[in-house]
Amino acid sequence: MALGAAAFTPQLEHGLWLLAASMTLVGMSASVFNLARQKFLTEAVPVMFRARALSTLGGVTRIGIFIGPFIGAGIMQFAGISGAYWVGFAGMMAAAALSLTIPDLVAPETSDGGPRPPASTLRSVAASHAGVFLSVGFGILLLSALRASRQVVIPLWADHLGLDATHASLLFGLSGAIDMLVFYPAGKLMDRKGRQWVAIPSTVIMGTSLILIPFTAGFVPLLLVALLIGFGNGISSGLIMTLGADFSPDNGRSHFLGIWRFIADSGATGGPVLLSGLTAAVSLSAGIWATGILGFAAAVVFAVAIPRLKHRRNY
């Protein structure tokens, strides 16, 4: 509904306030929706298939993000800029209708038939799992900052090199295409070998790629680095959700995943802020290099904090 309201803002004289309110509601609704889908899959899918399921969820989301702008651009040729909002509105209504067909999960009874444990609170979950939030959660914050910054870095450096909008869009599109192709193999690897097998390489690859960007001086070198970034980000598809599911308790899972999502969103907000601040204070290259270092820091955190898979399963 918020996207439908936003579609009318271009025709209103003071539509900025309506647009701001609409986008606030979109953000709030998206957070609730993302949390609900993660909790559902965490409980609906067996643990042995968890990483594959959540990586596929992340990959499907990436596919939607990739094709959505093309659909919106096509509709805007006939309906103007409001057409993009109507595409979003139609997509959300379809998602809502589809959600109505998904059955609710039945809460399992306790093994001894006794009463269920008392309901948890946000404060109790935060206190009892503080060690996880301060260790693996810090790695998640760094990874989110890295992911958010990479979306800004490619077009910024393309503009720095004097590339036109067409070439910049091509760079971003091809990087996104690589991103979409590797999510399922990465999830399967996490299920079979352990989460570290994806968490560490993905952050190292993205960190290395960002370090290399300031050394590129043309379209082709930048394209190769952009493809490498896409590969690194693609294999990390679903990683944040999978780790959140792994560490979440049965009692208080919603509270735990809510805090987990807040940590990830904080990193996604802080990464571009760090990039812009260092760019303004020093240079664009310095900002990109600092962002790349976040990848290596995240790899170190994951290497230390994520437990290794003790028993290898053949599935």
Automatic annotation (TrEMBL):
Transmembrane segments: 16-36, 57-79, 85-106, 126-146, 166-186, 198-217, 223-247, 259-282, 288-306
Record bears the keyword Transport: yes
InterPro entries reported for this sequence: MFS, MFS_dom, MFS_trans_sf, MFS_Transporters
Membrane topology of the entry: Multi-pass membrane protein
Superkingdom as given in the UniProt entry: Bacteria
Pfam families to which the protein is assigned, alphabetical: MFS_1
Major place of residence: membrane
Domain annotation Major facilitator superfamily (MFS) profile: ranges: 1-310
This protein's UniProt keywords: Cell membrane, Membrane, Transmembrane, Transmembrane helix, Transport
Localization, UniProt: Cell membrane
Listed name of the protein: MFS family permease
Organism expressing this protein natively: Paenarthrobacter histidinolovorans
